[in-house]
């Protein structure tokens, strides 16, 4: 009674609307014949082919739409979309993370911080929330010097429980800086650590994280130049984070898809419900992903 429609799955249904020649992302059905990959190679240059939880995923370079149409005719092909290289993202680091909860300030004076609870932190910290008992996984460029318990930084105060890396690198240290910056936004404790305050803005601490008592688990998916080195199966990232102890997972990176729903979105949607497909039951995970870096400023200029 819940079936809306049954019919032939024509090749045209397998091609994403507005797909252009160039880098494409091909998904095969879970029980696909590996020989299908050889057939795809006759139409496009394959950059990567990997078995995923959902089936095979192939990244290829197709020189024409006609080549893509030929690939779509292969019976094991499930869907073809544009491949978008993941890149780092981050929202503007605002002083509110250091404790500038001006919206709640009872005297409207930036030199006298709003402090209803404790001595530091943003508004959520004034309500008593600081991440105690929570481990946050951070998929990024690594974390600090890649060691426990502080990753080489006093603002993490013994709360770095471990980390991992992909694609043959030797450690999970951060040679770029983006990952450590994002970890700071999440869980740095500048009040008990470096103790540096914003000049001219009262008792607002630099580098304060919203969950300043949370534990951290690092996953290095970008190299020191900001190039993607993560696994082909995007589901593996939250799965590894969950195995490392994370129950909240941060991803300040993505692709400019224009709002299109891709393989990465499907993999992460699956991980929200169950981050470990090899264990009975649902291992649920809170996944946080950057909205992006692009948009318009207050003057209407595209950034």
Describe the structure in your own words.
This protein is α/β, with parallel strands linked by helices. It is built from 6 helices and 11 strands. The protein has helices spanning 35-41, 65-72, 123-126, 178-187, 236-243, 263-273, and strands at residues 22-28, 45-52, 55-62, 77-82, 87-88, 135-140, 160-165, 215-220, 248-251, 253-254, 286-289. A hairpin with a 2-residue loop joins β2 and β3 (55-62). The longest helix has 11 residues, at 263-273. The N and C termini lie far apart (48 Å). 35% of the residues are buried.
What key attributes describe this structure?
303 residues; single chain; 6 helices; alpha/beta; elongated
Question: Main sheet, how many strands, which sense, barrel?
Answer: 5 strands, parallel
Strand percent estimate? 15-25%
Overall pLDDT score:
86
Shape: elongated
Give the strand order, joined by hyphens, for the main sheet.
7-8-6-9-11
Q: Could you estimate the helical fraction of the residues in percent?
A: 10-25%
* Beta strands, count: 11
Sheet/helix structural class: alpha/beta
Distance between the first and last residues' Cα: 48 Å
Q: Please report the number of helical segments.
A: 6
What are the low-pLDDT stretches, counting only 5+ consecutive residues below 50? 90-94
Listing every helix as H and every strand as E from the N terminus to the C terminus, the arrangement reads: EHEEHEEHEEHEHEEHE
Rg over C-alpha atoms, rounded to the nearest angstrom: 23 Å
